[in-house]
Write a structure and sequence with these properties.
Helix content is 36%, strand content 18%. The protein is an alpha/beta fold. Strands 3-4-2-1-5-6-7-8 form an eight-stranded mixed β-sheet, sandwiched between helices. The protein has a six-stranded parallel β-sheet with strand order 11-10-9-12-13-14, sandwiched between helices.
Amino acid sequence: MCDGSTVRPKILVLLSRYLPGVKSGGPIRSISNLVEALGDEMDFRIVTTDRDKDDDTHYKGIEPDRWNEVGKAQVLYLSPERLGMRSLFRILASEKADFVYLNSFFARRFSIIPLLLRELGARGQETAILAPRGEFSPGALQLHHRRKKTYVALATRLRPYRNLLWHASSPHEEQDIRRVFGPDAMVRVALPFSQSWSQILTNGNACPRKNPGMLKVVFVSRIVQKKNLLQAIQMLNNISGKIEFSIYGPAEDGAYWNRCEEAIRALPGNVHVEFRSLVEHSAVARIFSAHHLFLFPTLGENYGHVICEAMSAGCPVLISDRTPWRDLEQSNAGWDLPLDRPELFRAAIQKCVAMTDEEFRTTSASARFFVHKFTSDADLLSTNRALFTTWRTVKSPDVYGFDSSQV
């Protein structure tokens, strides 16, 4: 076992997508930022797929089914032929490490199957850590409710889940995990790494001119039900003034996107909408810095890297109260509002429409300062380091206090 002082801890990371993928959002950012921050003192080995979601060919510049050096990590990009249980068993059995780090609860190939394979003897890693990445938030559990409720009820009775160390990305997510898996669950809270303050400063202080009576609104995220684009569109009804609404993100759920298109067609003439589809991550800061407001009424985020990126670019945010980013209005950085009060969202949008250029620049600067305070926590490095360098063995209870009505 590594003691965290003389030998670098070795972490085998499993996740469905990794760099240079751009279609899977937050988990890629969380892991790549973690590797950048701790890769000099820890040995990260990442196992993932060799192509982005729905792509027919593997990433350019990588060699599938072999270890590739990517930044400060070694990455094994598995081809479709190597994604079977036999290959995963071989990897889990042969890759000796202190931890296997899973980045989803519901992902079949990169979470459920690996945990079951460990029970069958593929235990090359001493401890399993699972980061559910917001999957236990009430909003996320509402989606495909019956299927998720059934699997959660089963998982709480399976030994692999009783011996896990859970990684919560915020105190809110810790509460979500304990609500589902009981108060005795082993949970560590470590906020994800985001952009450093020096990176935030490189985004510059440029922001678009703000004339009263007009507003440039942007949505940047995957187009799936959880991200709640449909309600964002509906919130633009009954707003006076000229609204330009730009939508960036892959339409992963075709049926849901069709509903969004119907809502767009029903908008009044003062709202102009443009769909920009996929965008490279390197362009996100530039996109945010060209808009006055990031509208993101998400059903739930365990962290929300895109919220951080918006504010770091000087773009105030209008989000739901289902993320760790709270008390925004008190800091003049934006709003975090309850989804069952759409009239509050419309009032905030109308307030933004009426803003003068001077008022907007003040709010833009406040958003930058707010994210600086949020991401410069002195404990951020130590809590993430402790996740992989110190742990204790706790005898897990045979049965968790599970209440299926909470799911």
